[in-house]
């Protein structure tokens, strides 16, 4: 029997769970970058906790927490160029914030107001995608446009481990290889797709190896280590910008929260497993590293906590002051010409709203 193909998948980690360096930092990572990344991770964690609290008090709709996945969002956001396009899924608050979406816009969207997706400062990025995996097709389409126009821009798309089982993901991956698209696909492998374990999702040892079928680079990184993903993102973006084609990155993390505020994870996973997840978490890890290097101390931490709390409180106040849209808006934005069968519903909504 002849062997026609052998493959291996690299797995990268720079900062260990105890905050110690495993190998020297890449040349692209300096102290200023790490301090910036840490501040952004703390800000997003604070925002995230507040968003969950708002949902619990009836002031926000169902909300997907990104607790434990802050390094992924921040690494993508800091690595991308302004004129790249980000195609997010629903756990990407950190990247969206770094791209210019305000905390108030995010709260507005999760509060059920679609005007929150009309991003003032980054109109080129796509709105959040709640259907699983459809965003990969959108991102491949955007990357195709960049390629056809000869623009040195990349399309960056994210999805969870569950999304890699969907046809939309596999079709986009395949197309990206055939057309050598300037596309970076990042899988946030947080081990669970609601109550479905990663092991049930795919028989493969890694999710990165799905790239082999499309003959494009596939790498696995520690998604709790900001440096690992930042470094992989820069390599993938450089490939995309210089016309060398797509990359699939699997960022291994752990979902520390419930799937959304509508879920109760204690029904399907053990406390022991959750505790192990907390031992790996990204915010403490980077803080420990900065402590070891004497770049961070308790006074700076206190000041940061005060600053981010104030920033989040201001965003929440601005959100709560937004005048709700008229209920008829849901008809206005969906149809240019209202289909006849919906006219009666429209009239009724208008009548009830006015009275
Ligand atoms: C097309 C589609 N099917 C089913 C759902 C219901 N659903 C919402 S989240 C989810 C699991 C997604 O898991 P994963 O891709 O691992 O992302 P995670 O939420 O864990 O970050 C499912 C099945 C959906 N939103 N869209």
TrEMBL record:
Single GO MF descriptor: pyruvate dehydrogenase (acetyl-transferring) activity
Enzyme category, top tier: oxidoreductase
Domain (Dehydrogenase E1 component): residue spans on this chain: 38-317
Keywords, sorted A to Z: Oxidoreductase, Pyruvate, Thiamine pyrophosphate
SUPFAM superfamilies noted in UniProt: Thiamin diphosphate-binding fold (THDP-binding)
EC nos: 1.2.4.1
The UniProt record lists the keyword Thylakoid: no
Obligatory cofactor(s): thiamine diphosphate
Reaction(s) catalysed by this chain's protein: N(6)-[(R)-lipoyl]-L-lysyl-[protein] + pyruvate + H(+) = N(6)-[(R)-S(8)-acetyldihydrolipoyl]-L-lysyl-[protein] + CO2
GO BP of this protein: branched-chain amino acid catabolic process
NCBIfam families in alphabetical order: PDH_E1_alph_x
Subunit structure: Heterodimer of an alpha and a beta chain.
Purpose of the protein: The pyruvate dehydrogenase complex catalyzes the overall conversion of pyruvate to acetyl-CoA and CO(2). It contains multiple copies of three enzymatic components: pyruvate dehydrogenase (E1), dihydrolipoamide acetyltransferase (E2) and lipoamide dehydrogenase (E3).
Stated name of the protein: Pyruvate dehydrogenase E1 component subunit alpha
Organism: Alkalimarinus sediminis
């Amino acid at each position: 029997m002849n062997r026609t193909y052998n493959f291996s998948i690299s797995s990268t980690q720079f900062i260990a769970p105890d905050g110690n360096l495993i190998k020297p930092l890449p040349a692209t990572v300096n102290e200023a970058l790490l301090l910036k990344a840490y501040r952004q991770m703390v800000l997003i964690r604070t925002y995230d906790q507040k968003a969950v609290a708002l949902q619990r008090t009836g002031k926000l709709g169902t909300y997907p927490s990104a607790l434990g996945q802050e390094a992924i969002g921040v690494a993508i956001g800091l690595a991308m160029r302004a004129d790249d396009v980000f195609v997010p899924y629903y756990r990407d608050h950190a990247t969206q914030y770094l791209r210019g979406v305000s905390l108030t816009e995010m709260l507005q969207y999760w509060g059920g107001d679609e005007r929150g997706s009309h991003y003032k400062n980054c109109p080129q990025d796509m709105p959040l995608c709640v259907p699983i995996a459809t965003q990969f097709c959108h991102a491949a389409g955007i990357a195709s446009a960049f390629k056809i126009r000869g623009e040195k821009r990349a399309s960056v798309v994210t999805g969870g481990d569950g999304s890699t089982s969907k046809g939309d993901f596999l079709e986009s991956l395949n197309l990206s290889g055939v057309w050598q698209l300037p596309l970076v696909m990042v899988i946030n492998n947080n081990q669970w797709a609601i109550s479905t374990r990663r092991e049930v999702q795919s028989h493969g040892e890694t999710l990165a190896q799905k790239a082999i079928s499309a003959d494009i680079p596939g790498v696995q990184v520690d998604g709790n280590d900001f440096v690992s993903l930042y470094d992989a993102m820069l390599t993938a973006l450089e490939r995309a910008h210089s016309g060398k084609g797509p990359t699939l990155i699997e960022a291994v993390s752990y979902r520390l929260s419930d799937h959304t505020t509508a879920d109760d994870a204690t029904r399907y996973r053990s406390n022991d497993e959750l505790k192990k997840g907390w031992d790996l978490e990204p915010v403490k890890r980077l803080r420990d590293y900065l402590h070891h290097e004497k770049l961070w101390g308790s006074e700076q931490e206190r000041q940061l906590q005060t600053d981010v709390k104030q920033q989040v409180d201001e965003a929440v106040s601005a959100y709560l002051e937004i005048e709700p849209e008229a209920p008829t808006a849901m008809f206005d934005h969906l149809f240019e010409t209202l289909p006849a069968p919906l006219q009666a519903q429209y009239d009724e909504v208008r009548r009830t709203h006015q009275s």
